[in-house]
Amino acid sequence: MTKPLLEITDLAKDYGTGRRALDSVTFTVDTPQLVGIIGSSGAGKSTLIRCINRLVEPTSGSVRLMGTDIPSLSPGELRKMRRQIGMIFQEYNLVERLTVMQNVLTGRLGYVGFWTSLRYRYSAEDIRYAYALLERVGLAGFENRRADALSGGQRQRVGIARALMQRPKLLLLDEPTASLDPSTSRQIMQLAQGVIEEQKMPALINIHDVSLARAFCDRIIGMRDGELVFDGAPAELTHARLVDIYGAYEDDETSLKQEEPA
User: Fold this and answer.
1) 38 DSSP β-pair partners
2) CA-to-CA distance for 223 and 27, rounded, in angstroms?
């Protein structure tokens, strides 16, 4: 039997505050799909995302990517594994003084030597791919602009292109729309959805906006107090389920209200 691309088993994180940030979280991800992770602030969404690539060290449990247990890797092995995991951040994490093209090419840092990266002497193939990615994310012609001259939505598009520059097997998005206006947020979600379909890879997105999650995600995981309390299709995310996830939930969307029995 083929193992899932991503397999998380009994994952736990304890910050020593008396309450676990993650408590025995278990799920798998295999098919190319956009998996939304929802829940209140402090539910464990960001901790979960960051434990997968060990930006946060798990307390216990297993995170297996392509059969390899990430928490058990040495620092050198972890650097190689992170080539396979693209990460997109809420705060963009761009180098402000560098150009758009230079920022995108930093996605290849895990593959090239130190001096090559320092001098930005990338291969012709890498440069061609970077131009193709900029066109795909809607930033053709922006390659020579400095990152600090871009809008928030444009910066997030650069972040997506940089992550794809790694040619990853898995994409992680940590609240990529939290700092954006509603219209730009939908554009970024549409872009993420399209890229995942084209690249045929799964992605996990930590997202606060339930309406965006229901509109664009193929699958939704609900977190509450560090525990996984919902895992299903967007159509299964009824008002009652949202109450399970959030404790209380006010939703004025007619579609949700109609799902409740009279």
Assistant:
1) 222
2) 12
